[in-house]
Design goal:
- By secondary structure, the chain is α+β, with helices and mostly antiparallel strands.
- It is built from four helices and six strands, in the order αβββαββααβ.
- It has a single domain, classed as Pnp Oxidase, Chain A (Roll), CATH 2.30.110.10.
- The chain is about 40% helix and about 30% strand.
- It starts with a helix and ends with a strand.
């Protein structure tokens, strides 16, 4: 990555982190608490890399029989990604069900193709992939392998 591209990605990350932390994540959390949920959204619980305390964040997810796929739009810069790097044991809640698993970064995965698997139907696939693309700065796929299945 060039110096200019790296600096632009860092600026985009800072801007997106503020929007996510203070606007999007609280709004998604509120909708979840009042019972408005989506099959693409889940709550990821990691252990804080510095604090050791549980940290929860809403994420876009694609769940299958053996685990789940997530995309860290900001790569290893995202707080939850730093937490996974320090301790890969995670919990994931979709709807009312909790899954326990181990998370791993998958740098060789095609993030653009992966984004298309998160929604069903051509329009939804395109919209989801476009949104992920618009918000990303340094994306990487994350695979959670369930240990309680």
């Amino acid at each position: 990555m060039s110096q200019r591209t790296t600096a632009a990605a860092a600026r985009k990350f800072r801007r997106e982190r503020i929007i996510g932390r203070y606007l999007v994540n609280p709004a998604v959390g509120l909708l979840d608490r009042i019972g408005i949920r989506s099959s693409m959204l889940a709550e990821l619980e990691t252990t804080g890399a510095k604090s050791g305390q549980p940290r929860r964040v809403p994420v876009t997810v694609s769940i299958d029989d053996e685990g789940a796929w997530l995309i860290s739009q900001h790569g290893h810069r995202a707080g939850w990604a730093r937490n996974i790097a320090a301790n890969p044991k995670v919990r994931l809640r979709q709807g009312k069900r909790w899954y326990t698993g181990t998370a791993a970064f998958v740098p060789d995965d095609n993030v653009d193709a992966r984004a298309h698997t998160f929604a069903k139907g051509h329009a939804a696939e395109s919209a989801t992939a476009w949104t992920i693309k618009a918000l990303e700065s340094d994306p990487i796929s994350v695979r959670i392998t369930f240990t309680d299945a």
